[in-house]
Design goal:
Layout (H helix, E strand, L loop, with lengths): L6 E5 L1 H19 L4 E7 L2 H10 L5 E9 L11 E4 L9 E9 L3 H12 L4 E10 L12 E6 L4 E2 L15 E4 L2
Parallel strand pairs: 2-3, 2-5, 5-6, 6-7
Antiparallel strand pairs: 1-9, 3-4, 8-9
Helix pairs in contact: 1-2
Length: 175
C-alpha cells in the first residue's frame, strides 16, 4: 500500500471519469470535421490526455511539450521549457490539454506561443481549475472539467513533491 501524505479525497475515481466523459463529448463537438493536433502538457497532463483522447473519435495528431513552474515543489516559479513541440504549427488547430489551471501562467504562455507560431486556433482543456482570484489577466481555459478550492491537490497526473501522479483519484493536502 502506498504511504500517502496527510490528505483526503477531493474527487473520486468515478467523479474524475465522469468529468473526462463530459469534456471528451465537448471536445468531440468542438473539433469534429477538422484536423487537430492534440498537445499534452507534460508531465501533469499525460494521464488526462490519454484518458480524454481514448474517448474522442475525431482524428488527431498527438504531440507534447514539457514545461514546468513547480520543479517538484509546491510553489510555482518562472516557466522553464524542457521540450518544445515537434510539429510545424503553421495553419494548425491545437487542442492544448493540461491537468490543472491554477494561476494560468503556463497555459496562457503556451497558448500565446502556439498562436505566435501560426496556429489558427488554440482550444484549451483542463481537468481541474482552482477557484481563486490570482489568475493571469485576460486568459481562461475553454473547457474545465472540475473546480476545486484553493488548496494543494494531487493525483491523476498532478504530483506532490514529484510523487503520486499515478493515483486514480484527486486528493487535497491537509492544511
Amino acid at each position: 500500500m502506498i504511504q500517502l501524505p496527510d490528505s483526503t479525497i477531493l474527487f473520486s475515481e468515478g467523479e474524475v471519469a465522469a468529468a473526462i466523459d463530459w469534456l471528451a463529448a465537448a471536445v468531440e463537438d468542438h473539433c469534429a470535421g477538422d484536423e487537430w493536433v492534440a498537445v499534452c502538457v507534460l508531465n501533469g497532463g499525460l494521464i488526462f490526455t490519454a484518458e480524454i483522447l481514448k474517448r474522442v473519435n475525431t482524428p488527431m495528431r498527438l504531440d507534447s511539450v514539457r514545461v514546468s513552474r513547480y520543479r517538484d515543489t509546491t510553489l510555482g516559479k518562472d516557466l522553464q521549457w524542457h521540450a518544445r513541440s515537434e510539429f510545424d504549427i503553421q495553419g494548425k488547430r491545437i487542442l492544448l490539454l493540461d491537468d490543472i489551471f491554477d494561476e494560468g501562467e503556463t497555459l496562457a504562455a503556451l497558448s500565446g506561443h502556439f498562436m505566435r507560431q501560426g496556429a489558427t486556433e488554440v482550444f484549451t482543456v483542463v481537468l481541474v481549475e482552482k477557484e481563486h482570484d490570482r489568475k493571469v489577466a485576460g486568459f481562461r481555459p475553454d473547457l474545465v472539467g472540475l473546480r476545486c478550492p484553493d488548496q494543494y491537490v494531487f493525483g491523476f497526473g498532478m504530483d506532490f513533491e514529484g510523487l503520486y501522479r499515478n493515483l486514480p483519484d484527486i486528493r487535497r493536502l491537509a492544511e
